[in-house]
Each structure stands twice: as structure tokens, then as C-alpha cells.
Amino acid sequence: MLMKKLALASALSAAFLVGCGSDDDNSSSSNDTPQNSTFTASKNADAQPIIWIGDFNNFDDAVALMLIAKDPRYTIELAVVEDSFNTVAHGANTVYNILEWLGNRDTQVIRGAYYAPEEVHYGANGTKAEGTAVTDSPALVGDIADYQLPNSNTNGRWNLERRNVMGINLYGQYVPGPWRDNGSTLYATDHLIPRAEQDNYHYNGNNGMSFKFELAEDMVLAELDSLGENVVVFNTGKLTTFARVLSKASPAQLNKIDKVIMMGGGFEGEIPFTEEFEREHNLGGNIFSHPSFGFASDFSTHQEFNILLDPLSAKVSFELLAENNIDSYLVPTNSTDLAKLEAHSIVDLAAPGATPEACYTSRLFQSIREFEGGDFPGFDGSPSGDFALDRVIRLWDIIAALVLLEPETLEMVVREGYVAVDQLDDGLENSEYRYDPISFDPMVGKTSFTEAGTGQPLNVVLGINSEKARLAMIERLRSSANAAVKGPSCD
Ligand SMILES: [Ca+2]
Ligand SMILES: [Ca+2]
What residue range is the signal peptide (predicted)? Predict the structure, then answer.
């Protein structure tokens, strides 16, 4: 099954990629190249608007952002920074810096919804919370109370008030410290990306007292109102904000959505989580290193990270997308798990003629290798090797971006279906594992196909040609089209 618009997208893509690998003037930084403050990417007059809801918490988000920012067929109108395991401040700075670096100067950046519904219901440590709703307007289906805190706007700058999210999310609190640090700093390479200079591209912290409050979902809906009927919603974090958007949206607002692409989930027993791929475990998740599982190696859980961080909002989102007959693609671990960085990508990205963003990505991958190689305890014990580079790290959000940008290249295997999300069992607050919802309920967050559903089933991308995806990533980053005008040079 292929997307209706494949042929058109493919033709445009081929034209866009002409000139890849050419050794032109944009390929390195120098003193007489334009400054970021004047560089604006060239976008098509009929470019399709994107509302991107993501956690922007790691290398794959950053590279996905570069790929889409460069493509003239899309404009990123709104970026919503979801909580995950690092701070919204870090995520917002990554977004600001990469967007301005690549000449995307008009994107509004806001923080996502504050709390996953269950997170508030149980409290961060698994204790059931009572009577702590922030506002009482029921915004989610199924009478899920509204606990959201709003964004605030001071003097026209979005104040992304910071909650210290590290370790707070009910499900995310065990994420290892080094993983958080490395995501926050892009493995200590974020300083290589030129810092955004334009006035509205700065994280403002708790700046000012006269806050004008708005809820993230209301701002997304206002953005939908302002756009035509061809909006792409691209979701690469948990689905907290998107569930609230879908719950509150009017039919006219839902009509504005042309297509949804979400990275998330994992399906046990489907390729590559089958015996022939010789894993120790084939559960479909990408959460690892949790001591309670007692496994020495490999992904050993049912949970994919984005779904795990808010299983209830994932359930609500999948149901509402189907009920409203919205053309939706889910990109689970089945299609990302064979998509590895591979050490030779480091060399290929940095080959002569590299754009600043290709050179940067080479250094980012090299840094991942240096930071993670062999130091992470509990795996195969090899002293260096490609442990993180290829044992655990995947091109997760990068694959989702390529599903948008060049689906035909990926040779996607798509299955239509309704998707169920396992919810947290009752009793966490009274269990010996109240600090650890996964040990208490090892199935929570697991995705599976179900017969039960209403409306248009999701398109689940169960497989791709991962080598072609990796090569497409490299080719696009090296393309001179909309390449950065300053930044690292590998020449
Ligand atoms: Ca992500
Ligand atoms: Ca359960």
C-alpha cells in the first residue's frame, strides 16, 4: 500500500537532490560568508506547513530537524517542545539554533502540555495524587481531568517556563543520567551549531512577571485556524499535547490536517522482532538498561519510549485519528530498529564538499561513538567497539522525517490497522514498585494491533529499506540546496 501523493513527492524530491555532493561555495564556513542573521532558506511558494510536536531531546531529533528545515517543500510553522528526559529549555534551544542556522526564521516555538494525565493522577513517584488539578475544564475525552499549566507570553516572546522534568515523569524517571546529559548537549556538540541570534529565537526562562497564559493545545489549534487545509502534523515525542489537540479540535480544525506522521510504538513478533534476526529478546521496545529486568543485553522491554512516556494520550490520539478519518502514519521500532548509524557514516558525511550540517552531523556521530562506546555498563563488555553506535542507537526520528520527505525511497511496508496501547494496571500506589510503573506492570505502553476500532485505520510502517534511508539522510545533509552558510567545516 502506498501513499496517494507518492509520485509527486518523489519527483520533487529527485529535483531537490540534484547537486548533492557538489563541491560548491556553501560547503564550508569562512569569514566572508553571510551571517545567520541574514540567511533565509528558499522555500516553495506552495510549501506545505508543518506543526511539529516533538521532544527534541537527542541527536535523532536534531538531524530530523535539519532534514526537514532544508527541504523547500515544507515550512515548519510551529514547533511544540514536549517534556521527556531533559528540559524543555534544552529542547527549545536545539530547535532555535538549528532552525536559524538553516534559515528557517519564522517558526513559533512553544512548550508542550505540562503533564501526562496519568503522571498527575499518580504523582511522580507513583503515589496517587488527589485534588491537585490546575484547571478544571475537561479537555480530554473520557473525563480525564485537566491538569495543564499554560505557556506564558511576555512582550511577544514565548516564555517556555521550565519545569525540572528530569526524573519527574512517572515513566521516565529511571532514564539514566548520562542519557539525559548526552541528549541535552547533543553529546557535547551543541556548541558547534551557531547560536540563534534573532530576537524571537531565545529561550526566555522565567523572564518577567506579567504572564499571558495560553495552553499548548489552544495555540496549536489557533495555528491550525491560520493555515490552509494541507497541514502536516509531525509528532516525534510523547503524544500528550496532540491528544489534547485532537480532543478539543472542531471538525473544521481537524479538516485542516492533511496527514499525520508519528514516531512511536513497537510490534512484538513482527520483523525484525522475530527469531530469524537472532536477538536475545524480541519484544519490540527500545527501553533498555533498566536493572529490574535483569537482562544483560539487547532491548528487553515491550515499551517504545514515546508511547511509554504517556500511554493514555497515545491511546486517545490513535483512537481519535481513526475516528476522524485522518490519514495517519505510525513509524514504530519495527521500521527503525535496523536503521543504524554505522561507523562509515561518520566518514561519508565528512567527505570533501561537506555542507556545515553534514560536517556537524559527522562530528555528532563521532561524539556519540566516543561517549557511549564501551562505557555503558551491562552489555557485551567489549572495551570500545560500536556498542552505542549500532547496538542501541537508532535513526528513530530521522526515519520518521524520511517517511515524510521521501517515502518511495524507503520502500515502506505498511499495514493498515487499529492500534491498542496497554495502560497502567490499577494498584501502583499500593505496590512495592510504586516508584517504578514498568516493574509493576511490564506491559504498560506496549502497542499491538487490534480489531477494535472506528473509522480509518492507521498506516503502520512496519518495515523500510534502512540502508536506503541511511544513504538518503547522508545525501540530504550533503546537498547544497538550503545548506547552512556557516558552522563547522570538514574540508
Ligand atoms: Ca525524539
Ligand atoms: Ca497493563
Answer: 1-21
